[in-house]
Design goal:
about 70 residues; mainly alpha
Length: about 70
């Protein structure tokens, strides 16, 4: 049995399965949480450390939000 996971896909011969154990909803939550923490006055580095991600990821999310909006 496999633990719960997010996305998965089968190899062309259907003998192997690749899956991501992180759900899309968790990734979305993490990105919105970053925005809230930045709004609370944390630095990019502090946000990244708090969420367990790279500081460059936080910069990338913010750049995307500024260009495309939060939706």
């Amino acid at each position: 049995p496999l633990p719960r996971g997010g996305f998965c896909s089968y190899s062309p011969d259907l003998k192997k399965l690749a899956y991501n154990r992180i759900f899309r909803e968790f990734r979305t939550w993490k990105r919105y949480r970053a925005l809230l923490l930045l709004g609370d006055g944390l630095t990019y580095r502090q946000v990244a450390q708090s969420l367990g991600c790279a500081e460059s990821s936080v910069y990338g999310w913010v750049a995307h939000w500024r260009k495309a909006g939060i939706d």
